[in-house]
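Figure 3 (text version): structure tokens given as input.
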């Protein structure tokens, strides 16, 4: 079987798909690309059996008839975290709590940064919208650096292209050259629910549905949390 996903879920999907295969379910080859590109490929009619994207993106694909609406199932919840360059080659570890006490601390950090990195997809869109709601767009517009689709913010941090970065925690953990300060505080948290769905181009819809039911079940909860996601339900 063939599946497509955004980069945010590539590692957790590799492990849950391996667990599914160990249970005797069909083997699934997952292509992980930028979320915008993934949605575009599905919308263009490329053949896939399963699609894993942010829930909002899947809803749009379902409305357009590209995935089976009734099959959309939450997989995991991801929090956006804040990171800075570490100057070392060590992989980043996940801290226990938020990076700042409240939104005021986040605003201060953004104002103090020469270049702020953010990703494509829903988390980056939410960050830019939040900065605009804070009235900071005029002072920040030429200091905001969006990563190219499929390129993690961590790479820009490690390369010194930005000095403050915002991305899904799951994509920052393990990245070399990065120190994760923590997730965003509760009063400005950006959370994304990633979900899966059966594509309308699926060669074996029943088999795809069986795989989806397993990889989005409590049976893989430990795998999901090990990748710095939270259960989606």
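Below: residues designed for each position.
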């Amino acid at each position: 079987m063939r599946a497509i996903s955004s980069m945010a879920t590539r590692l957790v999907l590799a492990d849950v798909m391996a667990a599914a295969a160990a249970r005797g379910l069909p083997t699934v080859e997952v292509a992980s690309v930028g979320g915008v590109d993934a949605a575009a490929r599905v919308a263009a009619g490329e053949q896939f059996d399963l699609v894993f994207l942010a829930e909002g993106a899947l809803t749009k694909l379902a409305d357009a008839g590209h995935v089976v609406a009734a099959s959309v199932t939450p997989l995991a919840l991801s929090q956006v975290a804040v990171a800075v360059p570490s100057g070392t080659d060590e992989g980043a570890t996940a801290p226990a709590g938020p990076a700042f006490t409240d939104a005021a601390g986040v605003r201060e950090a953004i104002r103090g940064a020469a270049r702020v990195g953010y990703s494509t997809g829903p988390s980056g869109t939410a960050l830019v919208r939040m900065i605009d709601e804070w009235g900071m767009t005029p002072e920040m517009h030429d200091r905001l650096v969006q990563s190219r689709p499929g390129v993690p913010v961590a790479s820009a941090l490690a390369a010194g292209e930005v000095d403050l970065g915002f991305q899904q925690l799951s994509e920052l953990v393990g990245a070399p050259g990065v120190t994760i300060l923590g997730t965003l505080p509760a009063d400005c948290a950006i959370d994304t629910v990633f979900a899966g769905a059966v594509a309308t181009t699926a060669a074996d819809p029943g088999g795809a549905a069986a795989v989806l039911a397993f990889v989005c079940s409590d049976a893989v909860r430990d795998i999901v949390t090990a990748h710095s996601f939270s259960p989606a339900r």
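The chain has a mean pLDDT of 94.
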